[in-house]
Amino acid sequence: MNFLAHAWLARAGDDDFLLGNLIADGVKGRDLGQWPEAVAAGIQHHRRVDAFVDRHPSVLAARRRAPAASRRVAGIALDLMWDHFLARDLATSDPHEREVVIERCYRLFEYHGAPQRLATMVPVLVREDWLRRYASLAFTCRAIAGIGSRLSGPNRLAELVPHLRDDYRQLDDDFATLWRDTRAELETSGS
């Protein structure tokens, strides 16, 4: 899962809990004592979601279908694809709540910023409206390739994009199962 999915799962929590979910990938280590309690709880929630998703049968199957040369980085691409499917689906199923959640995320990022590991990317994410634009497969694929250009070695994420397009229907089915199970297990009702 990426920003939008983590935000959606945490949206019933207060702003600090949501912020923790949004910045968790930029926070290293287990000691969260420097963070306010609700932010730390959000970081921990994000990590539980990631662990659940990474071992979900749909995700494992999707990774196995990826070309062998790109399998090591397939999880990065899948996280963005899950946000694509969610953004696409919410645009029609719950557009008002989607707008509320996205604007809340952007407000939190603008007010609090992000940890150093995310500090360069987050302002671009807000300015270029990535959370809405993930609904476009073309945008999501460009984002995946862009991340790959920042990794060392050959751009395995860019190489993976044609597979993602070819496997789109199966990935959509994988997401439906994954999202149903993740929501049942980890969607918050408040914090």
From TrEMBL:
Domain of life: Bacteria
Pfam families: ACP_PD
The keyword Hydrolase appears for this protein: yes
Keyword Hydrolase annotated: yes
Keywords, in A-Z order: Fatty acid biosynthesis, Fatty acid metabolism, Hydrolase, Lipid biosynthesis, Lipid metabolism
Protein name from the UniProt record: DUF479 domain-containing protein
